[in-house]
Amino acid sequence: MASSESLVTENASKTYSGIPKAEFLEDVDSYMASAEETAESALKKLDEQHNKYKFMEYNLNTKKNRLKSQIPDIKKSLDIISHLQAKKSSSEAMETRFLLSDQVFARARVPPTDKVCLWLGANVMLEYNIDDAEALLRKNQEAATKSLKQVEEELSYITEQTTTLEVNMARVYNWDVKKRRHNEQSSKSS
Amino acid sequence: MASKKQSQEQVIAGFQELRQQQRQIVGKVSDIEMDMKEHELVIETLKEVDENRRCFRLVGGVLVERTVKDVLPALVNNKEQMGKVVENLNKSLEQKGLEINKYRETHNLKIKGEESKEPEKQGHGQDTSKAGGVLVAKNS
Amino acid sequence: MSQQIDISQLPISQLNALAQQFGEEIEFFSNSLNQLKLAQNKYVESQESLNKVSPQSKDKEILVPLTSSMYVPGQLSDVDSVLIDIGTGYYVDMSVDNAKDYFKRRIDFLTKQMEKIQPILQEKYKMKQITTEILQLKIQQQMQAQGVAPKT
Amino acid sequence: MASSKAQQQLPVDLELKKAFQELQSKMIATQQQLKISDAQIETLKRAIQRNVLVEKEIERLPENTRVYEGVGRMFMLAQIPEVKNTLEMKNKAAESKIKNIEGTKVYLERNMKESEDSLRELIISKQGRG
Amino acid sequence: MMDSELQKKLSSELEKYQSLQKEHQKYVKARQVLDGQLSENKLVKEELDRLEVAANVYRMIGPVLVKQEVTEAKENVQKRIDYISGEVTRHEGLIKDVDKKQDAMKEALQKLQSQYQQMQQKAAKS
Amino acid sequence: MMAYGSPHTSVRGHEGQGKVMELMYEMEMAAEDILTDKQQIIDLDRKRQKTREAIRVLSKDHKSDKHWVCVGNMFLKLPAARTKTVLNEDFNKLDGEINSLRTNLKQKVNKLRDLEMKEDIKGFNLTPLSKSDLQHIDNYF
C-alpha cells in the first residue's frame, strides 16, 4: 500500500499554540482519488488523529483541573490575609479552628503577626511579610487565571478540531456508502 | 497447536512487558522533570531574597526551620542529583528502545495497523497498550 | 455455576461482548474499591492525627495551616475537644476520644462496604476468565474448521 | 491441537474438572493475595528506608535547630530527640507489620501447596482406578 | 423508491428509542445521586442520635457556624431523609415507566428492522 | 479557522461552507458561554441566599456575642458586629457579581440571537450530526 500524507497533517504549519489544525475535507472524491486511499485506511488515519486529539485533551484537562483547584486556594489565602492585615496591630490573639486533617478542626490561638509562611513548592516554605505575601499571591492568582483561560481556549480549539475530524469521518463514511451503493446498482444493471 | 499458541502468547506478553517498562521510564522521567522545574522556580525565588530570611524545608514529614542560605545549596544539590537521574533514565530508555526493537525482530512481531506507515510516534504509545489483540504475531 | 453451560453455547460475538462486559464491571468495582480505600485512608490519617492532640501538646507552638499553601505561627489552644464535620453541613464538638471513636466507626463502615464488594469482584474475575477461555477455545475451533490452523 | 480435540471427545471426568477449576481459581486468588502482600512489604520497607534517611538528615542539623513534626496538616514544634523517637517507633511498627504480612504469605503458600497436593492425589487415585 | 418510506420510519423510531435511552440514563443518574445523598444523611442522623442532648451541634449557614439544638438538628435531618426517600421512590417509578416504554418500542423496532431487511433482500434479488 | 462544512452540503458544492461552519462554531461557543454564565449565576445566587439566611439567623440571635465564621479552610472567631459586616460585605459583593453577570448575559443572549437569525434567513438548520447522517444516507437510497 502506498503511504501517503495523513489527512490532517497536510497543513501542519497551521497550529494554535502547538496544536495542529485538522483540515476540513472539502472534496472527498478528489481526495480519495488522489491519495489512493481506501475508505478503511482513510478512516483509520482519521481515527488515529482523533485519538491524538483526545490524548492532548486529556493532558489539558489535567492541567485545567489543577489550576481550578489552585485558584480558589489562592483566593482563600488572600481572604485570610486581609483578616490578618486587619488584626496585625491589635493586641488580641486571633482564635481559630483550623482544618487539622480531613473532617477535623482543632483550635489554635494566633497572636497578631505581620508574617506568614508560604509553600513555594519543592518542599520549601518561605516566610513573608503580610504585604509581600499578598503581592505574591495576587501575582500568582493573575498568572493562574490567565493560564486557566489559555488552557480553556486550547481545549475549545481541540474540540473544534475533533468536530472537524468527526465530520471528515462521517463524510468519508458516507462517500463509501454511496460508492458501494453505486457499484451494487451498476452490477445489477449489467 | 496448544503449545505453539502458548508460546505466541508468551511472546506477546513479553513484548507488552517491555513496552510497559518503557512507559514506566518515560513516566518517571517526566515526573522528575516536573520536579526539577519546580526546584528551578524555587531556587530563582530564593536567590532574590535576603539570605537570612526564615525558610523551612520539609524532610520526610519533618519540617526543619532554617534560613534561606541553608536551604538554597541543598536545593541546588537536589536539582543536580535529579538531573543525573534523568540522564541515567534517558540512557536506559534508549537501551529499552533497542531491546524492544531487537525483541520485535527476533520474534517477527508487527503492530497491527502499522504496515503502511512509519513506526509509532513517540509519546503516543497509548493505543497499542489497550488489552490484547492489538498485537499480531506473524509466523506464516 | 449453572451459567457456565449457557456460556459455552454462546456464539463468539456474544462471548466477546460478555467478556467485555465483565471487564467493564471489574473496572467499575475495582474503582469503587479504590475510592473506598482512599476514603478510608483519610479517616485513618485523621484518627492518627488526633493521637497528637493530647494534654502534652497543650499550648504547644505550631504552624497553623490557614490554607493548604499558607501557614502562620500559633499555639494549640484546646487539646480536649475538636470540631468534627459529620457531613451535610453539620459540625459537632467532640471530645478527642469520641472523635477517635467516630473515625473508628467510619473506618469499620467502609471496611464492611469493601468486604461486600470484594467477593463480587472475585466472582467477576472468575466469570471473565471462564468466558475468555471458552472464547479462545471457540476461536481455535473455528480456525481449525476453516483450515487455517498454523502448522504444528 | 490433537490434544484439545481428544480431550473434548473423551467423556470428561466431571469431578476432576471441577477440582481443576477450583484449584485454578484458588491459585489466581492466592497469587493476587501474594502480589498484594509483596507490594505492601515493599511500601513498608521503603517507608523504613526513608525514615532512616530522615533520621540521618536530622542528626546532621545544628543542635538548636527548630524542627516540627507533621500532624495532619499542622506542624508541631518538637525536640530533635523526640522526632527521632517518633521515627524509630514508626519503624518498629512497620517492621512488625512486615512480619505479620510475611506470616500470612507463608500461610498462603502452604495452603496453596496443600491444594496442589490433594489434586495430585486425586489424579493418582483416578489413574489407579482407570 | 419503496423502502425510503420505511427507512424514514425506521430512523425516526430509532431516534425516539435513543431519546428514551437518554431519559433512562438521566433518571438512573439522578437516582444514584439521590442514593448517595440519602446514605450520607442517614450516617449524619446516626451520629446525631448518638449525641447527648447538651452536645454542641452547629450547622453551616453560608459562611457562619450557627449553633443548633440537638433535637432540632435531628428533626431537620430526618425531614431531609424523608424528602430524599420520596424522591428516590419517584425516580424509581420514572425509571420503570421508561423501561416499559423501551420494551414496547424494542419489539416494534425489531419488526420494522426485519421488514426493512426483507425489503432489501427482495430488492437485491430483483 | 476557515474551512468547515456540514456533511449534507457536500452534494451541493462547497461554496460558503467555510462560512457556515464558522458561524456554527461561533454560535456553539456563544451558547456555551451563556450556559456557563447561567450556571455561575445560579451558584452565586445560592451562595447569596445562604448569606442572607445567615444574616437573618444571626440578627435573631442575641445570646452569642461572637461567631465562628468560615474563611477558606478554617473558622475565625469574630465578634458579632464584625461578623455582620463580613456577611454584609459578602452579600454585596455577591450581589454585584450576579448583577454584572446578568447584564453581560443579556448582551450575550442578544448576540447569539443575532447569529441565529442569520442562520434562519439562509435556511440552514442546525440538526445534530447523527440526524444529518441518516438523511444523508437516505438521499442515496
Rg of chain E from C-alpha positions? 26 Å
Q: How many β-strand stretches of chain E?
A: 2
* Gap from first CA to last CA of chain B: 14 Å
Stretches with pLDDT under 50, minimum 5 residues of chain B:
113-140
Structure, described:
The complex is a heterohexamer of chains A (190), B (140), C (152), D (130), E (126) and F (141). Chain A contains 3 helices and 6 strands. Chain A is α+β, with helices and mostly antiparallel strands and 190 residues long. Chain A has a domain at 43-113 and 139-163. In chain A, strands 1-2 form a two-stranded antiparallel sheet. Chain A has a two-stranded antiparallel sheet with strand order 3-4. The longest helix of chain A has 60 residues, at 130-189. The radius of gyration of chain A is 28 Å and the shape is rod-shaped. The two termini of chain A are 30 Å apart. The model of chain A is unreliable at 1-13 (pLDDT under 50). Chain E has a domain at 3-50 and 86-125. Chain E contains 2 helices and 2 strands. Chain E has a two-stranded antiparallel ribbon. In chain E, helix 1 runs antiparallel to helix 2. The longest helix of chain E has 56 residues, at 70-125. Chain F is mainly alpha-helical. Chain F has helices at 17-60, 80-122, 129-140; strands spanning 66-71, 74-79. Chain F has a two-stranded antiparallel sheet. Classes of the chains: A alpha+beta (190), B alpha+beta (140), C alpha+beta (152), D mainly alpha (130), E mainly alpha (126), F mainly alpha (141). At the B-C interface, loops of B face loops of C. Chain B: One of its GO terms (cellular component) is prefoldin complex.
